Amino acid sequence: MNTFKYVLLTIYVIVCVILILITTFQTKDSEKSIDDTYENPRANKYFDKNKSRTKEGRIEKRTIIISTIFIVLTIITTVVCFL
Questions:
Q1: Closest alpha carbon to 62 in 30, 13, 7, 15
Q2: Is the pTM of this model over 0.85?
Q3: Cα(33)–Cα(77) distance, integer angstroms
Q4: CA–CA gap between residue 33 and residue 44 (Å, rounded)
Q5: Which of 16, 27, 37, 73 has the most beta carbons within 10 angstroms of its beta carbon?
Q6: How far apart are the C-alpha atoms of 32 and 20, rounded to whole Å?
Q7: Whether the Cβ atoms of residue 45 and residue 5 lie closer than 8 Å to each other
Q8: Are 69 and 1 in contact (CB under 8 A)?
Q9: Which of 17-26, 41-50, 60-69, 72-81 has the lowest average pLDDT?
């Protein structure tokens, strides 16, 4: 059982580091693009449809996946270590 705890905690730490790195690589939306959207709502239709194909879209998708893994590992780690 102790070996399982250590393996689980090691995986947990690795996922934490990956989550920190992925969120660090995300870019913030500039205010200029927000102003452009309000002035001309049709201007970003192409970008909105193809957002998942861009670098930012892929990083956002990976962030969601890693965050979900992080949440599940947090629950499992809590149950295993404290029960």
A1: 15
A2: no
A3: 41
A4: 9
A5: 73
A6: 27
A7: no
A8: no
A9: 41-50
* Structural domain of 52: 2-82
Measured CA to CA, the distance from residue 73 to residue 12 in angstroms comes to 6
**Which of 31, 36, 59 lies closest to 46 in space, CA to CA?**
36
User: Which tokens belong to 40?
Assistant: 């001309």
Residue with tokens 């939306």: 29
The number of domains in the chain is 1
Mean pLDDT for 13-23 is 94
Q: What angle do CA 78, 22, 18 make, to 5 degrees?
A: 45
Return d(Cα 48, Cα 70) in angstroms, integer. 28
Contact criterion met (CB below 8 Å) for 11 and 4: no
Q: Identify whether the C-beta of residue 12 lies closer than 8 Å to the C-beta of residue 76.
A: no
DSSP 51: G
**Mean pLDDT of the residues in the chain:** 80
